[in-house]
Design goal:
Elements lengths: L1 E3 L5 E2 L5 E5 L1 E4 L5 E4 L12 E6 L7 E6 L4 E7 L2 E6 L4 E6 L4 E5 L4 E5 L6 E6 L8 E2 L2 H8 L2
Length: 147
């Protein structure tokens, strides 16, 4: 049984974002186990978990930011592209490995697109859902970050 632990967080150009590698255990014919823990690899206490599945490849998801909530996304199956925008810098990231997540901090505009067939995107959130936390208009987002 081999344990693969990679603790290096890869910084991105956009503020409030970085890639998070998580640990795995190769159990041979039993498969591979991936794991992460709140306040260790996940930099917050997890209050909500949700996942997105069966998204059409031409469909755009996201196109919003959050005032307070932080997220970590994992593409546990398939492939997805994510565009990050902090109002000044942009990053484009492909998530296609179940052991690499991406941290989306506060006030970070993001769009998710190019979902491959059978993609499953898992999200870990720092707070319960609150519509008032959402910023759904890019112009309002830009105004908020320039205060």
């Amino acid at each position: 049984m081999a344990i693969n632990i990679n603790k290096t967080k890869k910084k991105l150009k956009t503020k409030n974002s970085f890639l998070i590698p998580i640990s795995s255990v190769d159990e041979g014919s039993r498969g591979t186990l991936f794991f992460c823990e709140a306040m260790k690899q996940i930099p917050f206490l997890i209050k909500r978990v949700f996942w997105i599945y069966k998204v059409s490849p031409k469909r755009l998801r996201g196109a919003h930011a959050r005032k307070k909530t932080e997220l970590v996304l994992f593409c546990i199956q398939g492939s997805i592209k994510i565009e990050l925008d902090d109002g000044y810098n942009k990053d484009n990231v492909i998530l296609n490995k179940p052991n690499i997540g991406i941290f989306l901090g506060r006030l970070l505009w993001h769009k998710m697109y190019d979902f491959k067939k059978n993609t499953i995107l898992l999200a870990l959130a720092s707070s319960l859902y609150n519509e008032a936390d959402m910023i759904r208009d890019y112009t309002n987002f830009k105004k908020l970050i320039n205060k």
